[in-house]
Write a structure and sequence with these properties.
The chain starts with a helix and ends in a 14-residue tail after the last strand. Helix 1 packs across helix 2 and helix 1 crosses helix 3. Helix content is about 45%, strand content about 15%. The strands form two sheets. A six-stranded parallel β-sheet has the order 2-1-3-4-5-11. The protein has a six-stranded mixed β-sheet with strand order 7-6-8-9-10-12, with helices on both faces.
Length: about 325
């Protein structure tokens, strides 16, 4: 049986109210008595009840985390970092996996409300409109990542990062540059495409609609879109992908066609997942500062849960990580 506060009171021979105050470091109890009770409680193995503390403080020191695709390596890394920073502030996580299902998203909110979480963190940018509409009327604070239409959000500069990726390819001499977007995270994809278009136009390169395709944000979609480009009369010499998983599929399609990366086609991904540096060749990618994003999200959730001032939106810059998947434009004609 767990040791209770009543057990500690009997062992110390003082009133239950005195034990309660001593364990809460209340100055109404003398320092000597507090130290004695706290020492004995530790020796007895007493652990404070989170349920009782929650009833008293109206807080559970827990955050809910809702993800649609936990198998996405970028999201998995984010959730791990959110958990680490939440623990530093004394919060535990309750993880809910919704899949690609709006009803399960809404059910997750209902469940987390029942659990009385102090705030909800949504690291998946593919959140549905129904979810956004629902949380707007909830009494539990919600923090979103990479969903900049929402007031309390942490995200990356997708337009600027897309422009950075394409400028890198332009600097290498490429002019036939394709873009593979992602349907699952359409707002992010559109912003990265805006950066792609802006970079080309600033350098006087016409945007060819035939070099823009939308995948499913997974490797399969990247493979399908890349095959589509390779069947063009003038295929691209470089491709910028919505994310690293899309880039992985594109590289597979390039190799299947008997071509090489980057000698024939250069490839740039986005997210800089842990796997990126182990691909063949290692993938050039736009890195999101996952550590900073997770910390800011946790800090924002904590501030909202404890009625502290909090900035509404934070946009972080992307960072180009150059690896061996990009190189100087090869033998193909780029004009």
């Amino acid at each position: 049986m767990p040791v209770t506060m009543d057990d500690v009171a009997k062992a110390t021979g003082v009133a239950l109210s005195t034990v309660s105050r001593a364990l809460a470091d209340n100055p109404r109890v003398s320092v000597a008595t507090r130290e004695h009770i706290q020492k004995l409680a530790r020796e007895m193995g007493y652990v404070p009840s989170a349920i009782a503390r929650g009833l008293a403080t109206k807080r559970t020191c827990s955050f809910g985390v809702v993800v649609r695709d936990i198998v996405d390596p970028f999201l998995a890394e984010l959730v791990r970092l959110v958990d680490m920073h939440a623990l530093e502030l004394g919060y535990s996580l309750i993880l809910s996996h919704a899949g690609n299902d709006e009803r399960r998203e809404l059910a997750a909110i209902h469940l987390l409300r029942q659990k009385r979480v102090d705030a909800i963190i949504m690291p998946d940018s593919s959140v549905s409109d129904s979810f956004l509409s629902k949380v707007a009327h909830e009494d539990i604070p919600v923090v979103l990542l990479n969903q900049m239409s929402y007031p309390y959000s942490i995200g990356i500069d997708n337009v600027g990062s897309g422009e950075m990726a394409v400028n890198h390819l332009l600097d290498l001499g490429h002019r036939r540059i394709a873009y593979i977007g992602g349907l699952r995270c359409r707002a992010e994809s559109d912003d990265r495409q805006k950066g792609y278009t802006r970079a080309l136009e600033k350098r006087g390169v016409s945007v060819d609609p035939a070099l823009i395709a939308l995948g499913d944000s997974w490797s399969g979609g990247g493979q399908v879109c890349m095959r589509q480009f390779l069947h063009l009369e003038r295929p691209p010499t470089a491709v910028f992908c919505f994310n690293d998983l899309t880039a992985l599929g594109a590289i597979g399609a390039i190799y299947s066609a008997g071509l090489r990366v980057p000698q024939d086609i250069s490839v740039v991904g986005f997210d800089d997942i842990a796997l990126a540096s182990f691909l063949h060749p290692p993938l050039t990618s736009i890195a999101q500062d996952k550590e900073q994003m997770a910390k800011l999200a946790v800090d924002m959730a904590h501030a909202l849960a404890t009625d502290q001032p909090v900035p509404e939106r934070t946009i972080l810059p992307g960072r180009l990580v150059v690896r061996a998947s990009t190189g100087i434009s090869g033998l193909r004609t780029n004009t």
